[in-house]
Amino acid sequence: MNARCLIEVAFSLRWRDLDAFEHVNNSSFLTFLEESRLRWFMGLDGDWNTSQFMPVVAAVHVNYRAQLGWPGDILVRLYCERAGNSSLTLAHRIVGADPSETLYCDGNVVMVWVDPATGKPAPLPEAVRRASSSD
Amino acid sequence: MNARCLIEVAFSLRWRDLDAFEHVNNSSFLTFLEESRLRWFMGLDGDWNTSQFMPVVAAVHVNYRAQLGWPGDILVRLYCERAGNSSLTLAHRIVGADPSETLYCDGNVVMVWVDPATGKPAPLPEAVRRASSSD
Amino acid sequence: MNARCLIEVAFSLRWRDLDAFEHVNNSSFLTFLEESRLRWFMGLDGDWNTSQFMPVVAAVHVNYRAQLGWPGDILVRLYCERAGNSSLTLAHRIVGADPSETLYCDGNVVMVWVDPATGKPAPLPEAVRRASSSD
Amino acid sequence: MNARCLIEVAFSLRWRDLDAFEHVNNSSFLTFLEESRLRWFMGLDGDWNTSQFMPVVAAVHVNYRAQLGWPGDILVRLYCERAGNSSLTLAHRIVGADPSETLYCDGNVVMVWVDPATGKPAPLPEAVRRASSSD
Residue D30: which of A27, B14, A16, C78 has the closest Cα? Predict the structure, then answer.
C-alpha cells in the first residue's frame, strides 16, 4: 500500500465485541471501519452528506488475517484506493496498537454517493474528491 | 447461481439493526450470514467444531444491492461456491421474504478450518464436505 | 401480573446475542424489549411519534431470572404497569417459547414522551393512553 | 454518592452506538457498564472467575438522565453499593468526559457469583470483597 493514509483511528476493544468463540466478531470490524470513515468525513473541509447526496456502503471486502482478543487496542488506517464519478473505494488496514503492529484485517469498502430522493448515483462530493486525492 | 441452496433461514429484522441513517446497518448483514451458516453447521450429520478443528471466517465479500428498512422480513440463502482442502466458500443471497424477493445483498464468505491449538489449517471436516457437495 | 398483556412478540435468538460467556448478553434483552414496544406502538390506532412528541426511555429495571442459550426462541410479553401524564411504565416478562415457558427476565421500562424541540415532557399521546388502559 | 469510586473508564462513542432516533441506544449503556466492570475485575489482586465460581448479572436498574449523541466521549464510574454473601451491587454514574460532566445515566447493577456446575450461588470471591470494601 503506497497510498497516503487518510486517517488513523484508535479503538479500545469492548468485551462485547467478542463473540461466543471469544474472538472479536467478524461484524465488529465493519463497525470499526464505519467509525473511521465517518470521522474522516467529518473532518473534511466541505459537505459530504446533505439532502442532495449521501454516502451508502456498496460493497465490503474484508480479509481476516489473525484472531483478535480482548482486552486490546487497535488502529484502523484508511487509504484511498480509487475515487470514481460517484464512488470512493477506501482500502483499510487494521493493526494492533502495539509496536509490532500485527495485521488483523485488510481489504476495502466501496462507498457510493446517491441522491436520497431518487436513490440514483450523485457526483462524488468535491470535498471528498479533494481530500482523497493523493497529493 | 446454479448451485443447490444449502439452507434458507428467515429473519425478522430488529429495529436495532437500523443505524442512524435508518437503514439496516452494513454490519448486521454479517450477523445474518453467520446465523445462517451456524444453523447449517448444526444440522450436519457429523462434527464441524471440535477440540481438533474449528471454523474461522477468513474473508467476506458483500455487495449491498438495495437499502433495507424496518420492519421487515428477509431470507438468507447459502450456496456452496467452493470446497477446498481446509476452506469452504459459501455464497449468499439475501432477499425480501415477500413474493417479489427483492435482492438486498449477495457475495460470499470464506471459512477456514483451523486447529485451535496451533492455529494451523485443518482438513475440511468430512461432514462439511459431504453436505456441501452438489449432488 | 393481573394486567392484560398488550402484545406478545416472538424472537428467534441470534448467535450474536451470545457473549463470550456463551449466554445471551444482558444488553440483548433491552433490544428485545425495545422491539416489542415499537411493534406495539406501530399497531396503535393513532400517533405515538411525531414532530411534537416522541418517546424516550427514562429507566429500565430488569431482573435476569435464568441464563439463556442459543439456539432458542423466546416470547416477550408487555403489560401496562402505569400510565402517567407524560410517562408509561411497561412491565415485561420474557419466557421460553416452549410449553414450560421458563421465565428468563422480568421487570419494567419507563418511557417518557418529550417535545423533541425543547426536550420538555409532552402529554402521553391519546392513542397510547387508550391502548394501555386495562379494559 | 459518598462511596469511593472503584474505577473510572473512558469510552469513545461509536456511531453504531446510535440508533435510528440518533441517540446512543439504551442497550449500549449496559455494554459500557459491563466493560467497566470487567476491567475492574481484571485489575483485582485475585480470582474473580474460575471453574468454581463466575459472576452473572442478576439485575440492572438504569436511569437515563440526558440524551447522548455522537461523536462524544464519556466516563463510566463504578461504586460499591453493597457487598453481600454472594452478590455485589455496583452503582454507576456515566458522565460526559468534558469539564461540565453532564450526567447521562445512573443506577446500579447486581452481580451474583454462581457455581457454573450447579448454577447455585457461590461465596463472593475474596478478592472482590477486599477491593469493594470502602476503605
Answer: A16
Domain encompassing residue D37: 5-132
pLDDT 10s digits, D85-126: 999 999 999 999 999 999 999 999 999 999 999 999 999 999
Q: What type of residue sits at position C88?
A: L
Q: Are residues D35 and A16, on separate chains, in Cβ contact within 8 Å?
A: yes
CB-CB neighbors (< 8 A) of B34 in chain A: 25-27
Query: How many domains, chain D?
Result: 1
CATH of residue A38's domain is 3.10.129.10
Instruction: Please check whether residue C125 is in contact with residue C53, taking contact to mean a CB–CB distance below 8 angstroms.
Output: yes
Give the pLDDT score at A134: 59
Partner residues linked to C78 by β-bridges? C7, C92
What are the Cα distances from residue A83, in Å, to A49, A130, B128, D22, D30?
A: 17, 10, 41, 29, 40
Alpha helices in chain B (DSSP H): 26-42, 126-132
Question: For residues A9 and A24, what is the distance between their CA atoms, to the nearest angstrom?
Answer: 17
Cis amide prior to B71 (ω within 30 degrees):
yes
Prior bond of C71 cis (ω within 30°): yes
The amino acid that residue A8 corresponds to is E
Phi, psi of D22 (to 5 degrees): 65, 25
Full-prediction pTM beyond 0.90? Answer: yes
pLDDT at position B3 is: 75
**Chain A: nearest CA to C133, how far in angstroms?**
38
